[in-house]
Amino acid sequence: SRPPDRLFPLGTRLSLCRFTIAGRLLIRKLIAEKLCIPWNEIHLQRTSKGKPFLANNVFGIYSNYNFNVSHQGDYAVLAAEPELQVGIDIMKTNLPGNASIPNFFRIMERQFTETEWCVIKSMSNEWMQLDMFHRHWALKESFLKAIGVGIGFNLQRIEFNVSPLQLEVGKVYKETKMLLDGDKEEEWTFEVRSIEIYFFNNNKQSQHHKRNQPQFTLLTFEDLVASGIPITPEDSACWDNFCSKQEHPVKQNSPSR
């Protein structure tokens, strides 16, 4: 089973729209620049389980090119691979709505194995435990997104042995291993990195601290659309409608997308 919607941070309609658009622009920029397909000729579709893919016929070394996007918190991110399956997930450590952290863990108990819970709860305080929870969650989501399966997958079939326990911002770690149905999966590589450090203070407010520049290519909106070609005629009414969307809370179906 999957976790109930109410446990996760509330977003806003406008911010979700922005992140969705950013994800689509990332995909089109990638395909246009790496595969040399003009924006207005790119045909994107989704599998029956919702994973986006390029429907254009691509031959040669990029015939198996695949990509994945995720957004949550302050970032929309993309990962791509010319040959191998790829999945990406990004998490911002947030307090679980109105639930206390121990109660949140109790409700989410079925999502992780006993070994994973031991690691999560071994951290020195509740905030670090929550951060480790989100790290495990992102690993599981990235794998499910890579293989393109839906919400019916039993998350306890997957078990992660995370390493190291402490992450340095901006550094890439590849030591984490996965077990599937109890067997170690040697063919999968998991890259883990912390973009920002979030901590919990005595006033129960989340703050963040950037130690150094993450090893990602950070793009502005101008960067995203630099090579863009209009797909449909400009419609100012659509833009006005987008800008008028209210910033009121909506539920998210999962911790990240």
Automatic annotation (TrEMBL):
InterPro entries: 4-PPantetheinyl_Trfase_dom (IPR008278), 4-PPantetheinyl_Trfase_dom_sf (IPR037143), AASDHPPT_N (IPR055066), P-Pant_transferase_sf (IPR050559). Residues 19-82 form the 4'-phosphopantetheinyl transferase N-terminal domain. Residues 85-191 form the 4'-phosphopantetheinyl transferase domain. One of its GO terms (biological process) is lysine biosynthetic process via aminoadipic acid. The keyword Transferase applies. One of its GO terms (cellular component) is cytosol. Keywords: Transferase. It catalyses: apo-[ACP] + acetyl-CoA = acetyl-[ACP] + adenosine 3',5'-bisphosphate + H(+); apo-[ACP] + CoA = holo-[ACP] + adenosine 3',5'-bisphosphate + H(+). Its EC number is 2.7.8.7. GO terms for molecular function: holo-[acyl-carrier-protein] synthase activity; magnesium ion binding. PANTHER family: L-AMINOADIPATE-SEMIALDEHYDE DEHYDROGENASE-PHOSPHOPANTETHEINYL TRANSFERASE, PHOSPHOPANTETHEINE TRANSFERASE. Belongs to the P-Pant transferase superfamily. AcpS family. This is L-aminoadipate-semialdehyde dehydrogenase-phosphopantetheinyl transferase. It comes from Strix occidentalis caurina.
